[in-house]
Amino acid sequence: MFQLLAQDKDSKARLGRLDTPHGVIETPVFMPVGTQASVKAVSPTELEELRASIILSNSYHLFIRPGLEVIREVGGLHAFMGWNGPILTDSGGFQVFSLAKLRKVTEEGVRFQSHVDGSPLFIGPREAVSIQRTLGSDIMMAFDECPPWPAEKDAVREAVERTVRWAEVCRQEQAVQPAGPTPGQMLFGIVQGGGYADLRRECAERLVAMDFPGYAIGGVSVGEPEPEMMKAVEATEPWLPAGKPRYTMGLGQPHQIVKLVARGVDMFDCVLPTRVARNGTAYTRGGTLNLKRADLRLDRGPIEEGCACYACRRFSRAYVRHLLKAEEILGLRLVTLHNLHFYVNLMREIRQSLADGGFGEWSEKFLTTYQPREEKENDEES
Questions:
Q1: Separation of alpha carbons 381 and 332, rounded Å
Q2: Is the model's pLDDT at 376 over the cut of 50?
Q3: Using only C-alpha atoms, what is the Rg of the chain?
Q4: Any idea what DSSP says for residue 150?
Q5: What CA–CA distance (Å, rounded) separates 313 from 301?
Q6: Separation CA 318–CA 283 (nearest Å)
């Protein structure tokens, strides 16, 4: 199911291959986010042309809208959205705790009000598995409780206990649920523990004893500073089995991905490439670029020199800036395509460097060149 192909000699970075019902995934891998059964502004054909090998969708949102009856009737999520590659679905646990207007946590699950219309709903570990079985994703996630950051240790311990109990229920439910549109679905466990290394170790060890085919490092990128995020991953990774994939949920920025690959992480997802594109921000090897800047009004160069994406092959910065300023849909589509290409190509370069035995040199060069920054708006007409 997961094959470890190479290990970097100077770090924990790994090259791997994960077999799924809808195809093979080469790792490390980035998963574009298609929360509502759509990666924003791009089509499945464009994702295929970008060579995206797997995408992520969200059970919570699809459960609310369009609802399981619709997806069941059309034959599952792959058929519904016209995507033939692998899909990972989040269990919805994070959204229940972050989006629900009102919620009440019980041993069976969480009663909450829909963030869309306020209607009463319930999701627990059994429901989460049932929802994801209906969706037919290749990888489904166990239902967990993600504590906020920061949180007192007692509260995090309670979240860990509940996460472990719910993981066992998910595992049992998977065994008795009738087959959905995707036979052979995998169920990944999620390690919680906040910023407490001992709780992360305990949670990881108890989940590993359940023998999931893969493990996520949850409860990161929830508002904590980047050094704390790295510490949480470092506190979790040693207790996860080397022969199974590791996934950090909701991460991250390009430099974070490179650093986390070096810490032994194999799978990533993040909304940033598509989200910042809608504001006119592009990722480049030097950092982010605000394409609405006035000084780009006459710039005939591509978004990024040397980039092979469709936007850079065909259009100038001046044209893309014009589209963004005129609020033409094509503008945000072009920046989105560029950003997704940047991320997918970043992972390809990482995998190639691991295959060649040069990840250390490659990552040092990338991290020296890439400067994470928030550009100030310079959007006035000249």
A1: 19
A2: no
A3: 21
A4: S
A5: 10
A6: 17
Number of H helices, E strands in the chain: 15, 16
Amino acid 79 reads A
- Per-residue model confidence as pLDDT tens digits over 149-207: 999 999 999 999 999 999 999 999 999 999 899 999 999 999 999 999 999 999 999 99
Token pair of 284, please?
């480049």
- Catalytic residue among 8, 90, 138, 144, which? 90
Of all residues in the chain, the percent with pLDDT exceeding 70 is 97
Comparing CA positions, the residue from 264, 295, 272 lying closest to residue 372 is: 272
Exposure on the CB side of residue 266, measured as CA atoms within 13 A: 26
Complete domains list, the chain, with CATH:
2-270 (3.20.20.105), 277-369 (no CATH)
**Distance in angstroms (rounded) separating the CA atoms of residues 82 and 46:** 12
What pLDDT score does 374 carry?
A: 55
Burial, 45: exposed, middle or buried (Cβ in 10 Å; 0-12, 13-18, 19+)?
A: exposed
Annotation says 117 is catalytic: no
Active site annotation includes 90? yes
CA-based torsion, 93, 97, 100, 105: positive or negative: positive
d(CA 319, CA 299): 8
Helices (H), 40-152: 44-50, 59-64, 68-74, 77-81, 93-99, 125-135
Which is the catalytic residue, given 138, 144, 266, 269?
A: 269
Structure tokens at 88: 């990972």
